[in-house]
## 1
Amino acid sequence: MFANLKSMNLSQQAEYLTKALVQMKSYNHSDGERHKADFLKDIIRSYPSFKDNDNLVWTRDISGDELGRKNVFAFLKGRSRGKKTIIYLAHLDTVGTEDFGPIQRLAHDPDMLQEFFAQYGSDPEVQQDAQSNEWLFGRGALDMQSGIAVHLANLLYFSENRDELDGNLLVMFNADEEGEHKGSRAALSELLSLKEKMGLEYIAAINNDFISPLYDGDATKYIYTGTAGKILPCFSIFGREAHAGESLAGIDPTLIAAELTARISQNFQQTEKLEGELVLPPSCLYMRDDKKRYDVQTAVGYRIYFNYFFYEKPIRQLSKELRMIAEDAAIAVEHRLEGTYKDFLNANDLPERQLDWGTEVTALDDFLVYLEEKGIDTVSVMEEARKQSSLKEADARMIAFDIVEALHQSDPEKKPRVILFYGTPFLPANTVDLNTERGIFLKSSLEEVLAEETKNTGEIFKIRKYFPYLSDGSFLSFDGSDEDIQSLKKNFPALKSLFPIPLKAMRDLNIPVINLGVYGKSGHKWTERVYKPYTFDILPEIIRKLTKRILQKQGN
């Protein structure tokens, strides 16, 4: 690869590498991720500085991964013997190409896609971009093969100009970002090992996950000093079944699920309000009853979970609020059924009956205490349920639901109840801490570099605290308390097996992440494209300048 790159400038290298990476498939949860990792390792090993030091480029298998996926690492020591280290971070997987429909065969051919979209009159904006020759199309071009390419180009630059690197550079390309983040979670042990063996001091990580215009005509380049957190609140709802001809005598869990959805999904009132930040409301990702086929019995159980972004709110507080929402939903259904039943009796001139539509609401941790006080071995119930479910079910969320259902069934009372718990994935929120010297230093260094870039190029930048979408950067730091850790573990069924996450190791690493993103449009869409003038000309220079600024000042 180096033979093709050596005569190119930095911008040309980034574009050439992006095309080469787009042309190679690496769909999430496929063999392509493993092949892409080997390809990246071979690219780096072709660089002269690594050719005779191939021990400084390596891969690490993701333990227990059924596809044999792996992460890629490269270590470059600068001119000094210092321990200060900057991490370059990107993910190597992409989503699939089903959205390309009849032109799926072109999904990995940037040149053919540009020709196609240049004639595509159904979307004038896409057509205009294609005709401008300033955009590079293709699956993963934006998310985030161009990000990998920029890091590779800068790694090559610093490998040939070590005198400009007053510290060390660690490059890390992870698998499975688009799925369960197995790559980034597995990489933590490698970061800890390198820190211990080599005495490294991780100053910051630079991610370049993509950014896009937030509205029509928006030319601002948004820079983030952290990333939003995500939690997946799950509700197992157990009602009281009844014949459809006597449905008012039962408790229909679909009603409670509907009330929950109305209170949570797309409800901006449930979103933290942070000045100057792009914050997103929760959304329902799954809701289904337990009926396997048609019959005239109402559903007994219901499963529902939500995508829930959080930023500065402690997990304990979030859990409390979600439980209160569930209680309100259950009470609303209870009152509704009471009123409807009275109307039914009056309309049919029937005598009154004593029925109870009350539904208990609890969190998993409290429910476990309740069962244990009854003498139930909850550990055995959960482990057996996990084993049995894993034999027939691959989805970690459904396994968690099976575990909670087994716990409910172990209760002799089996009363109508709603159980709140958490499922995979969980991503912590983090941001540069401006209450520390390091945080102040990183923010000021970033502001200086961006101010210089604005003066030189006219680009407009805006710094925000939280990258608003999911990012591997979430796993490099965790500022939660011991209580937060325990709360999460107790309310997350089979956390160790379904979603191993070393929260204490993340807290020990405490690596701030700055996202200087590649720029483009339509991430995860068939019209995905990256803007070449900024991504290949300007962004690599910004990242390079920030890297040198941080290490030079830290060294002094």
Note: The chain has two domains: 1-227+429-476+511-551, 230-426.
## 2
Amino acid sequence: MKKGSRMVQVERGEHVAGTEDEQSALTPQELTAYCQKLVACGELEHAVGLAIQAAQSTQDVPLILAAGLFLNRFCSRYEVVIAVFRKALLLLPETEPAMASVRGEIKVFLADALMAAGQREEAMALFMEVAQTLPEHRPLVGAHLSMALLEAGMADQAEQILAVWLRDEPPSISLYNNMGCALERLNRSREALTYYRRGMELSSRHETVSFGYAIALLKAGEYEEGFARYVKRVPRVPSLECWFYQDLPRLTKNVPLKGKNILFYQEQGLGDTIQFIRFLPQIARQAGRVTLAVPPVLVRLLRESYPMVEVCPITDILDHPELAGEYDFSSPIPDLPYFCGLRSPADVPAFSPYLEVLERRRDHFAHLVEQAVAQNGRIDGPSPTGRRLRVGLVWAGDARTSAEDVAADRRRSTSFAEMMEALGPVQADVFSLQYGSRRKELEQAGGPVVHDLMGSVQDMADTAALMESLDLVISVDTAPLHLAGALGREVWLVSRWDACWRWGDQGERTPWYPTMRIFRAQELSLAPVLQDVGHRLRQRIMEA
């Protein structure tokens, strides 16, 4: 929201509906601050519930708007967000000219939610109505419309909109940032750099622009400057009030490590930890004591792979702020490439598998796989060519909760049914490696037999052992993909068209995982690229 906008004036109490009792119970500022504090403490669901309750129980427009703006960012239940903004519009008198500007801003936020919910025709109509009837809001419309298109996966349309707005409107940080984002997602990262630089010229300390610039640099292969900017981000941790972020200085480059005790902690996704943990030994050899604080699902795998360091569940570490005195520094795990001086993709260290699988665990899952294959053989009859290819499938990422993360997951994930339809009947033994709530899709599955041994899997150490008995893993861009790559297993990535920075703008290969082949979508739907994967799989089976 713009400083000095009409919305700010309304929040200060100018002509709003609702009783004095309702307004005195909880101010918009108090609601926003409390909900944000809950998010910072890792209680997103509680915060969302509080905002929904506040919006439902009042006729006070500023309070409703505060709830709606919070929900628009953090709630993926778009029907709720839409209802909140519609309620605010109903309570604002349409006949009062003084309220026209405020209603226009609310319509922009409502259009955001409608776009996220897939109601694009109504969303576009609202955006255009505000742009045409309220010229002072054109910059706001351009920023929100382009970002809504980006989050919906329509980067090409966002670029077209932004070209018009940048031509006709005064320069703004939001427009430059969004154009940089659009070009990066269109896999034109070097072009994106120009727009991010223009945005930083307007505000050199703007965190969103700086982070976007870092991602575009990394995607363009400019690792030295990219990681130098990447490490300036505010970490995505369960709570910014956690003691290892608040009470310990953040590790920086060129700090003498000899004798220093360092706590590296999980940040962002599990895949980020798996990708970057390969750099840990270089730091551990120099430092005094090194501790990894990671989600429980990674603890056994990393303890067995890196016995030279201490590995603890991050849930346990969070509960013991008295440990702060034992450490000199803390650092998010994804900062490791920067400390190790990675300058370009060519500098990624020569690959060898860097995660360990205990022999007894490997043997256990090998036995389960053989049992499943034998059972399938009794159903289908013996394979005419002997041992069949064994293929593991992952079709969706982990469940997300915030609106931004849900939008990103929609772009990267598919469904079990869509993946199986594309792969078609194949002479292979197919195993599900899907985790989380999306594993339930197997229950409604018909057609070819797909083995599901994930009921025997407790964590990533077990998943790794299961992968060791498979010949090929096919996965969307999520943690098991990184696990297969780190183990040196043959793995095929089904990449969304706005590919993650680590896979670059183009190409089938990546220096991060030499055994990976990248299948890049050329449009929003993953269906066409999955057809390519199915075709290549049938060729692979014939070659086996």
Note: Confidence is low (pLDDT under 50) at residues 1-24.
## 3
Amino acid sequence: MNPSRISGVVVLRKMSDAWTMAMDAALTHVLSSEAGARVADAAELRILRRLTAGFLAGLLLLPAGLSALIGAAAGLPIGVSLAVSLYLITAVALVAGTRFGARLASRAADPQADNSVDPWDYCPGLFLTLDTTGVVRGSGGRDRDMFLSFLREPLSRPFVEQVHVSDRIAFARALDDLRLGADVVVIDVRLDRPVLGLDQTQFLNVRLDMTAMRNAAGELVAVRAQMLDIEGEMKMRDAVRVKEHEAHAAHELKSRFLAAVSHEMRTPLNAILGFSDILAGEYFGKLENDRQREYVQLIRQSGAHLLSVVNTMLDMSKIEAGRYELMMESFDAAETLIECERMLSLQATAKGVKLSSRLPRGLGEITADSRALRQIVINLIGNAIKFTDAGGAVTLDAARRGSDFVVSISDTGVGIAPEKIALLGRPFTQIQDDLNRNHEGSGLGLSLVKGLTALHGGTFMIESRKGEGTVVTITLPADGSGVLNADEDNMVEFPPRLSQTVSTDKESGKAARHDQAEAKIA
């Protein structure tokens, strides 16, 4: 064979191979883009390659034939458009037919592949399809076999027959809500067990999450219900209910114990105070020396302090148990505050603390429990004097702000650190809690103040700076409306929670605490 002819054949073959590779690459790109991540099939490439070769021939012959018949001006564009359209339609038809044939072949090879999988089978629980009357038309779900093992043949029967008699009204109401337009209804019902196991109860507690299925007109056509076993949740509810009952019983027992002990201790304390007063007055004979007089005075002071603690405990237990009754009356506020100042003036003078008041004219009358107001003011002034060193000052202020009556007690005492503010007001809690504390007390004063303020529907606020002093502000409704709007039995959360967290001014080191002290049923 002629060498030049051989070389020409080789060149043509290489050109053909290059054209084939380029065409396959282009067709592969088109098929992959159209089918997402699906890899182009070799049969599809082979069919499209042959179609493209025929298209190139038709692209030349069809426009040429039309040009000869109707002229080049109209024949060329019409011929090209017609050839391209025929190519695209034929390509789509051939590829679709190839894929459809491959799918049929795979189903013929694997008969089970034709069975569609319900997506609800991967979801927990039992899925039921109900018609508008509540009859079960289908079932599915991951736990279908477990639920159907004790249900009494639910298919084609009203589901309400499976529900316990006491819960059938709730199920019927939920189904009616879906008919009336609700999209989702969730109810808890009990199902009867026809056969009981050794560790099974008569009823199974389940939760039905019912979703409405509607047509284009919005009419209910079916209900899809997911059933979940909530036996564990019900056991937790029962355990919580038992613990809550036990805690309430213990709380009540503790309150009764405090009230009983406080009441029983006051009788001997009154005797101690009475006899110590007789000894100190030397009504039945002179004491021999000053040491005896000092001891009698110490007995009197200790007994008075213990009686004060007992009375505070009794009042606190009454508030905590909801049995503290407020005796509401209208009285002159300034007169009551001045009386409290006079009661504690001797204590302040003995410690070297200046106690003063700044009461504006026209303070007027307020409606409150006068005894409770005295307890609030006396406790606050007593605390201020206790934590103020000699040479310091304690000031009592009061004002009317709209419909509120505001009392403020400020001191120049030791102050309170910002991190200690959160501990204030807790029963039997004191800020200075080390062994060498300098101030006596039971830690009940502020708890009682907060409780009495809560019963009046008032607010309680503390502002303090370490080493500079403290300001305590009590705000009460002047007309007594806080008590009138409170709960009927005057139950309060004791000790009342402070509604805001401790806020500290980093520049001044000032800490403030505000307490809404809202009354609530315990």
Note: The longest helix spans residues 231-281.
## 4
Amino acid sequence: MDTHVRLLFIDAEQVEYLLIGSLLSEIFHTAYEITWLPELDKAVPEILSDNYDVILMNYQWGASSAKDIIQAARHQGAKAPIVVMTDEIEADVDREALSVGAADYLIKGKIDAQLLERTLRYAIERKGNESRLAELAHYDPLTGVSNRTLFKDRLNHAVDLARRGDYTFTLMYLDLDGFKPVNDCYGHDVGDQLIQQAAHRLLECVRNSDTVARVGGDEFILLLDDMRASTDMAHLAQKVIESLATPFDIGGMEITVGCSLGIAPYRTGADTEDVQRQADMAMYRAKQASGNQYCFYAEIMDQDARRQITIEKELRRGLGRNEIAIYYQPRLDTVTGEICALEALVRWRHPARGLLAPSEFLDVAESSGLVVEMGYQMLAQVCRDSHALADAGLADTQLCLNLSHRQLRDDKLVDALIAQLDAAGIRGSRLEFELSESSLMKDVDTVRDAMGLLSVTGASFALDDFGSAMSPLSAIQQLPFARLKIDAQLVAGVAQDRQKHALVMAVVQLAHSLKLSVVAEGVETSDQLRRLRELGCDEVQGYWLCPPKPLDEILVHLQAAQAQLNA
């Protein structure tokens, strides 16, 4: 034991303070530095301050008890052991004190210098041993901050306190933006050093009473004690983002990452699962907004989550019951009026809600991965429908399907395509796959690899929604696209908006210089069609020409649509 011990004495009675001071003065081999605190409501910050080696406190304060103080100190990571003093007549109080986290107890009126010194010394020694074990059980070995186990323990305690009285807290979930590329490029040693430095910066951003926990590879949680004002939360969130955005110096290399952060203030009635889920949803929303941002939890996120869960469950069942339907929309040549292609568009015949458009379910299909199975079902149906088109004199009409980013990454895609082509007895050149500009921006390498494999079958490709993002020209030149499809938002203003007119003209000129055909989507008026013809657009599609329809209706409508175009 150290020869100099800092002791915090918590008791309202000065006479008790003087008595303890007198007893400790009899101990010659150890110098005790005593600080007297007569106010219980100021105890927790002092206990957590790291200014003391041991705490000695009166357990009973009239009608109130030190029980909550001991529990709060333990759950917030107090390092100093707490010894309590109880009255002899208070049966079982000593056991209660020990059960909530006290290191030992002394009975008033039976304390002498030798007993007091031995009790304090043993408490400090036991706390040291416990701390070493706790480091292994409750702290992340890489960063030294709390691990998931200790975080859950402290969160449970915070929820209990919030439910019982005038106490609140806030959770912040965050993960590092761009950490995986750093790990992949520089190796795990550099990644580990980055995580260590990030944890250190987080500790510098918060108070001693707050908890920083590492709960995953690059995921951290901040448990912020008694933070009430949303402005304070926003200020701290911005402080964390700016801190982590500052370049890290690792082995002489300057590495920059960011973070996405979700904020969930405690809400009355919430349990530990609720508040964690809310913080996680807020973080996900922040990451969707391009990262390096923070987002507060809002009730609408719960509504969205429940909607997604319900739709995913029903869609999974619907895929098994053949509820997915295909509607076709023709693409027409602006000069001849001939049908160039039919685009296959997905619909869902929901048993309770009727026919649903893609906007009602496609985002859930993509996020859940069900879009892959849906895509296979659509591919099989399109190959079967090719025979009906042949019977109607459209044997050479191209059939177009959209491919999502998840489908492009599926290893079974090419084999499934070959199998369906063989089963239907049609050539791969009958099919054109449309890839969105956003998919291209996500991962050019994945898109390139998938297009290379699919092109072996003879299928062609179109870049969909061109103008909705900022796809690099170099990527378009490197990939085997046959045509560009101009985004409907640009087409919508081509007849009135000079800027959009100029943009469409530039896209047409760019595509033609690259030997690509141009398709205008979303044609809604005759004025738009006239302008698109003038600008040299090769093909058009839209509701004014022909809305998406089931195959049997589209065959009837095609002749009328061609006549309208030629009028």
Note: The chain has a mean pLDDT of 87.
